[in-house]
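JOB MANIFEST
job_type = single_chain_structure
chain_count = 1
residues = 282
[input]
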Amino acid sequence: MADRFNTIAGWTLFSGVVALGLSSLSAHYFQAGKVEPVAEEEAEGPKKDEVPIEALLASADMAKGEASFKKCASCHTGDQGGADGLGPNLFAIMGKGMAGGSFAYSDALKGKGGSWDWASMNSWLISPSAFVPGTKMSFAGISDPQERANLMVYLNSKGSNLALPPVPEKKEGAAPEAAAVVGDAAKGQKSFAKCASCHTVTPGGAEGIGPNLAGIVGKGVAAGSFAYSDSLKGKGGTWDEATLNAWLESPGKFAAGNKMAFADMPDAQERANIIEYLKTAK
């Protein structure tokens, strides 16, 4: 009798242990599948100390963006007049209203409102499902901000040509940055000798292998009658100090595929000098 009692007690204890284990396992299983609210918040905006997307757009590589578009090509076309696929044709998408056109968009995207500007496209590419819960888009998103910038600049070149957004100034109270390099116009005039084989800088001067650069500071990128490359035409924005600096540092990186044969200029002081000189050429 005692043996029978011990057997029953043993099985009862064993059953309790199993039930406790299954309860713990079940809790871990469902917690693993739960999406915490913070995940969506992180997908909506940049993390602390992350380089602003506007700064990455200013130095974006269109050729790399075209390569990244291959991730989209299974569902989207990007050429003018291209057919819709699983997703809509993306020609001239930048600046276009969300859910605009004849494609059968989800009700979630139809109800979002607004247009595909730089900020909304960036949030969409980070995580479509976080930006528009309920969207039919199954793409997981692109975590690398530079890849997103490259892809957006490429999309912008496909029939949109929106102006690049200004790079935000550093907020008060933030850690001080290194002092900006101050240019010397006289030294810049001497350095301009490297450019003179292709460019003139006198107002009204003729264009050569490259365009006349009088009044270039503040002028639209690829503006005027010169036969610029398609990659530079699609860049957008204006020739301010930041874009001129990025261009002089590496034309090939600034606008991949451009016709400029000039080698990179790694010296920040020399770049600042030339920019300062170009400011005087009006």
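[summary]
Residues 98 and 115 are 5 Å apart (CA to CA).
Confidence is low (pLDDT under 50) at residues 4-9, 11-46, 174-178.
exit_status = 0
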